[in-house]
Amino acid sequence: MQFIEGTPRNQAVLFTQSLEELIEADNEVRLIDLFAESIHLPDFHFTIKTTKEGRPAYHPQDLLKLFIYGYLNRIRSSRQLEKECKRNIELMWLMKQLVPDHNTIANFRRDNEKAIRKVFRHTVSIAKQFELIGGKLLAGDSTKLRAQNSKKNNFNEHKIERHLGYIEAKLGEYNAALAQADQEHKPGVEQEVQKYTARKKDYEDKQQYLEQSGEAQLSTSDPDSRQLMTRNNICEVAYNVQTTVDAKHYLLIDYKVTNSNDSRAMSGMLRRTKTILGTTAFTALYDKGYHTGIEIRKALDLGIEIMVAVPGTGSNAPDERYNMSRFIYEEDKDAYICPEQQVLTTNGNWYQKTKENNHYLVKHYTTNACAGCPVRALCTKNSKGRMIERSEYAGYVETNRLNIEAKPEVYKKRQSIVEHPYGTIKRQWGFYYVITKRGIKRASADAGLMFVAYNLKRLISIMGSEGLTKYLQVLALLIIAKTGFPQLKIINTAPLFVQVKKMFSPVNTLLRRLKATSVTLNCQPYLSS
């Protein structure tokens, strides 16, 4: 039986190939190279070694290329990236056969969280340049990324007290055994007493830290990570990553890594979105985890139309016909009308209430008619009669509810919009966890590179590799003009303008920037390449 046979390993090659010949013209790695070259480094503030002592540093653009390639190909480990530089032909071409040490690779990610965020914003600016961001309908949500910190190494007050109680019981047992032990067994018992005494001191130090810092939790491996509810009452030590996604092409326009739940996150993300888009003329969709009165008020005060899912009522009447939703509020009279047409009034006082660390004020509405009401048992079990609470944010909450009722078909799009990036990043790429340790800034750098890779992948998919290549060539030429060749004279840019404008109409801003540049290059070779 015949099989296809390979070339003998010891056979000499007469005509060798360069790395350039081995990489196809449409290979994605060429786009990564162009994308990194299109970045004007001084504007991004990468950490660069400036001292002349010792070995020269690696160029930040080279390390950025390495990370973007790695994240696009599901490689995040610095040790694995170092290994790939030695054996991966695409990376050999991209890195020009440089092989940085894994510590150098890891330190670049650690030290450049802000610069990585600016690289992400660069992908957003490219999308805006080509009108790929609609800016009319957006959806916000969060996803949990597990931290490099086990549940065992996460502590709260209750857990520490439980451990201290167990240790006290064990010390009592060993102290009693020590009093009765003979000389032969006494050293072993004393060793156990010392061990549990040291553990007790360790837990008391943790307890003291929580008391002094005011923190609710302490994580020993990754100090900024927290135990958060993921789903179905399952808790994980994780970070909570807030994201905002545009509905037109499911491109991410903003992200923020936090270690708290969603209840106080919406208004901050909307303020940032307002700055990015330069307008408030958009609709933002959120799930019920963001339904907090003060956050809804802040969002509406920004002038943004929001639709936040309304959670179910925590307590209902014995008969659903008398649920809170059946009581009608009359704003001019500041009173409620119950289903039996009785009027519930308020004494005008505000009472403070706390729910899940959120403090707010409420008014109480009651009526004396409850005493003789024939359906009282169907309405309330309270011996004093039915009482309605109205929050200081009730008007804003009602506006949000009316927004959803007016356009229910719009709100139904929320999940399909905001879950698109999570499906790619977590399910396809397997990025369920943060690979970095020791702090939220490092976690933010890791998440930022994920989102840079995602947006770049979407841009390639939407624009096509050829179109994106042409645009990045233009940006690369701008960088050359700004930094490398101030002495060059104007030669010929007309072909560049014609071709780019023919391919993409919304590039007027870029063309104005090119025309305003003091130098211009002969771009014909780039157009034909």
Describe this protein's structure.
By secondary structure, this protein is of the alpha+beta class. Among the domains are: 151-219; 320-392, no CATH class; 477-529, no CATH class. 47% of the residues lie in helices and 15% in strands. α12 (293-301) links the parallel β7 (283-286) and β8. The two termini are 46 Å apart. The model is unreliable at 485-529 (pLDDT under 50).
Features:
single chain; six-stranded mixed beta sheet; six-stranded antiparallel beta sheet; 21 helices; 14 strands; disordered C terminus
Put the structure in a nutshell:
With 529 residues, this protein is α+β, with helices and mostly antiparallel strands.
Alpha-beta content class: alpha+beta
Question: What is the overall silhouette?
Answer: flat
**How many DSSP-defined strands?**
14
Uncertain stretches of 5 or more adjacent residues = 485-529
Mean of pLDDT: 86
Helix content: 40-55%
Major sheet details: 6 strands, mixed
- Rg (C-alpha, Å): 31 Å
Q: Could you tell me how far the N terminus lies from the C terminus, measured between alpha carbons in angstroms?
A: 46 Å
- Beta-strand proportion: 5-15%
Count helical runs: 21
